[in-house]
Design goal:
Length: 76
């Protein structure tokens, strides 16, 4: 956001990938379950969270380029 507002030459792809990864990293922290008075998070380990964040980055690529298959290939 700051680089675009400062007039720096940057494309839309990088910020879209980064914002997709940020949103997908924040979703599990906000959406957690309450069971028996204690917090129970959606993902059990860091690998599941990392896979979810890579899916968010893939959705950023798909949104920036308009190519969903390219987003999947980027995350792989």
């Amino acid at each position: 956001m700051f680089s675009v507002s400062a007039g720096l030459p940057c494309g839309k792809e990088g910020p879209m990938i980064h914002s997709g990864a940020i949103v997908s990293a924040l979703v599990p922290k906000v959406m957690h379950l309450k069971r028996d008075g204690k917090d129970d998070y959606i993902f059990r380990n860091d690998r599941q969270l990392r896979d979810f964040v890579s899916c968010g980055a893939a959705s950023g690529v798909a949104a920036a380029f308009g190519a969903p298959i390219g987003g999947v290939l980027f995350s792989l």
